[in-house]
Specification:
The complex is a heterodimer of chains A (about 200) and B (about 180).
Chain A: E1 11-18, H1 50-60, E2 62-68, H2 69-78, H3 88-94, E3 96-100, E4 112-115, H4 119-128, E5 133-137, H5 140-148, E6 154-160, E7 162-163, E8 179-188, E9 194-200
Parallel strand pairs in A: 1-5, 1-6, 2-3, 2-5, 3-4
Antiparallel strand pairs in A: 6-9, 8-9
Chain B: E1 2-4, E2 8-10, H1 23-34, E3 36-42, H2 43-50, H3 53-56, H4 64-73, E4 78-81, E5 93-96, H5 100-109, E6 114-117, H6 121-129, E7 135-141, E8 143-144, E9 149-150, E10 159-168, E11 174-180
Parallel strand pairs in B: 1-7, 3-4, 3-6, 4-5
Antiparallel strand pairs in B: 2-9, 7-11, 10-11
């Protein structure tokens, strides 16, 4: 649009986490039962009508997904068959997907591309292209890589009011990093979920 | 309890220099402390505090916060839960070695104000497993530490909490207050 200031595309990491930082299988047991995780689907205990609205707006501000292999496989098994009145599934299926994996042979979900090597460089290239936000859901390993390389422009945590006690955590426990962030927004949902949103500290 | 975004209460060597304070936050923490009349500690936190608070008011450079906090902390009854600690050198302190659940249940039944557990993540996890905690206050700091001393560990079961309040401070700290879940 004429007059609009061009800016680089942003990488937006958006996660459902428990109070103890677990991000494994928020949407259902079948997503990921590794490590004998028995709380699959935990996020559904805390839904309210504002959360789907928020997630839909978030998706509307994006035109690509950047995913790790595990989350990609979970999504690719679910979304092509999904349908909803709000159009969330259609949007998920139509978005461009960038999948980071050294092992995946092919990525069949509509509009998918593989990133096999030089993750940081490839993500930097994506950011140079014109477009809207690039969304990262789940993908804990990838998120830690992106954080290490200062490639996360916004980190959104939907903190659920529950301590799970087990499961894959979003953040590596033994990472060599100390990253101060800048609080961009905090918002409380009726279900007791708190959105904490951070930008990179300049 | 001050917590990093990735769930640590201290760095790998106990560092807490990343904890952000401002006047508003200090005021709210002091109000929380004033709602209690007894301090509870794990050994590590107790020893850190015992080496600082008894003499802090003697220092000419003591801040208002230090003075306010020491006026509460020094005379207050203090209980340190430890199987290994032999002696304490801070006034009005006693050691409890075991039967934590019974001890807390007995204290809660006595008339008085609240019991407040300071930091002490290991003891806090034990309290959680024994279902002893009525309210949780977390000050979420805008920093990813990468590694350190975790807040929650070894929780034996899933525990639903109820969000009571959230408050955002100018310095980027978000304070979350939870009660027992239903």
């Amino acid at each position: 649009m004429a007059g609009e200031v061009s800016r680089m595309r942003r990488i937006v990491v958006s996660e459902f986490v428990s109070l103890d930082g677990v991000m494994q299988a928020p949407g259902g047991r079948e997503e990921d039962a590794s490590g004998s995780f028995k709380h699959g689907g935990w996020s559904f205990k805390f839904r309210d009508d504002q959360v789907p609205k928020y997630k839909l707006d978030e998706l509307a501000a994006s035109d690509a997904l950047l995913l790790g292999r595990k989350t990609y496989e979970i999504f690719a098994a679910y979304w092509p068959k999904a349908k909803d009145d709000a159009g969330f599934a259609d949007k998920m299926n139509n978005l461009a997907k960038h999948v980071v994996s050294t092992t995946l042979k092919k990525a069949d979900w509509n509009n998918s591309k593989l990133i096999r090597t030089n993750v940081a460089d490839e993500v930097r290239k994506l950011k140079q292209q014109p477009g809207k936000d690039i969304l990262v859901y789940g993908s804990a390993k990838l998120v830690n890589t992106l954080l290490q390389h200062d490639l996360v422009d916004e980190l959104r945590l939907m903190v659920h009011p529950v301590v799970l006690g087990s499961g894959r955590r979003l953040f590596d426990d033994h990472a060599e990093m100390l990253k101060p962030l800048k609080l961009a927004e905090s918002k409380t949902f009726p279900s007791g979920i708190v959105l904490l949103s951070y930008h990179q500290a300049k | 309890m001050h917590v990093s975004l990735d769930g640590f209460v201290a760095g790998p060597n106990g560092e807490i220099d990343w904890v952000r304070f401002d006047d508003d936050l200090v005021e709210d923490v002091q109000a929380l402390v004033d709602s209690a009349d007894t301090g509870l500690f794990g050994r590590v936190t107790y020893q850190l505090m015992e080496s600082y608070w008894p003499t802090v008011a003697d220092s000419p450079t003591a801040s208002k916060h230090d003075l306010d906090h020491s006026r509460w902390l020094n005379p207050a009854p203090k209980i340190v839960f430890s199987r290994t600690l032999k002696n304490v050198h801070w006034q009005n302190t006693r050691i409890v070695k075991d039967h934590i659940g019974e001890e807390i249940t007995r204290l809660v039944k006595q008339p008085g104000k609240n019991l407040i557990l300071f930091a002490s993540p290991t003891l806090g996890s034990t309290f959680m497993n024994l279902n002893l905690i009525d309210e949780y206050f977390f000050n979420i700091n805008p920093v990813v530490l990468g590694k350190g001393k975790p807040l929650f560990r070894d929780q034996s079961e899933m525990r639903r909490l109820e969000l009571v309040e959230s408050k955002t401070y100018k310095n980027g700290v978000v304070s979350l207050r939870y009660g027992r879940g239903s």
